[in-house]
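re: that chain from earlier
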Amino acid sequence: MSVALRGNLEDFGLGEVLQLIGQQRKTGVLEVELPDGPIEVHFEAGAVVSAAPRAGGQGGALGEMLVRCGILDRDTVARIEEERHLELRSFAGHAVASGAVSAEELGEVAELLTRETIFELLQCRSGAFRFRSCEVDAGVPGASQLPAEQLLMDGLRMLDEWRAVRPRLPQPDAGLRLRPGPAEGLSERAAKLLAAVTDPCTVAEAIDRSRLGTFEGGRALVELVDRGLLEVSGTDAGASGEVHGAPRPEAAGFSRAAAAVLAALFALAVAAWWPRAAPPGLPIPPPGGAGDGLALLRVRSALDAYRVATGALPASLAELAESGLLPPDALTTPDGRPYYYRRRGDAALVLPPES
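^ sequence. v structure.
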């Protein structure tokens, strides 16, 4: 029997949902209902095959992204859409078969669309979601499948850094003009954005043509403005408004990323019983409960979160409290006996207090 996973982003953020689907290696479609329209994320054995707004004709979101990147014009997208219906092909398949775009270039754009969609979803704080197990297509030719856990970690890192970058960005329709100056020592992303700037063009046009995406393109733009190689006109820098929705207002840094991963791990632990016991369509239950088993699971989850966030194991469990992942009293039983762990190569085994 297929079991539907559904809930609200107010209760469970997308990070928790991605972690759950990835760890359980689910195949199917995650549908997220947002004010601007529905978004779909397709999974194959826990990896993200594609993510995009559920758009209509003329190539949908992929066709729109190809236009924005300057690869195809709208007339060509419309022609491909018309022809592919006659030949019973997907838009992506016919775009490659007709020679309008190479498989490599199409795959690059499709992957950019997926990352942009996930980045936007991670910033959403409201909306309903539903995951249904079903077969999904192989995705766009040339596009890579992206592990859900890696997308989550990349997204958390990007959101932390985005808090510093976003206030400095102008509106997407602000004008950009090239200014003379030495370009030595630029980062790769800044050099790529500089090459995409025509004089004049808008911020959105330059970032789209660079194929860097909102996050990397924003960082590159700030670097170029600071170096004096770009001039922004038509709006005040730092008045970016709602470019991709507001990031969550937690503090940036290690504790934010680690706390988000820890929450995801708790959601995963609670949901471990869901496929066996929940009736169809049952919402995700909120984390909760008590007892020695859950207390030990809490310590194990915090240890995993620390390792994911820092790339290393702590010298002792006390560092979990020092980093803010757990309160100090969570490292001991009610009668004061401490939990401990033992290293096994690159892994760690958390053990209950000795009797």
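The longest helix spans residues 103-122.
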